[in-house]
Specification:
The protein is α+β, with helices and mostly antiparallel strands. The chain is 32% helix and 44% strand. It has one domain: OB fold (Dihydrolipoamide Acetyltransferase, E2P).
Length: 82
């Protein structure tokens, strides 16, 4: 499995960016999975040759950690600009 960041969800289409290789974009269609995801979430995912999802794991703790790190960086930037 590879780790991806959910770039965006539109209907049942999910656009994912591979962690560490964000230039690699993957688009999968999975109605049930798309209802569980929101932009910015991290997910371990295995995709079949036909583009369908064979298995996944939503990385809740990792997503929370990344969001906290991003908020901390934003707060630092905003403090410097004041």
């Amino acid at each position: 499995m590879k780790t991806y960041t959910v770039d965006f969800v539109e209907g049942d289409k999910i656009t994912l960016l591979e962690r560490g290789h964000e230039e690699h974009k993957v688009i999968v269609e999975d109605e049930a999975l798309s209802r569980k995801l929101t932009d910015g979430m991290l997910i371990d995912l295995m995709v079949r040759e036909d583009g369908s999802v064979s298995s996944y794991k939503i990385l809740t703790d990792e997503t929370k950690q990344v969001k906290e790190q991003n908020q901390h960086l934003l707060d630092k930037i905003l403090k410097k600009s004041n």
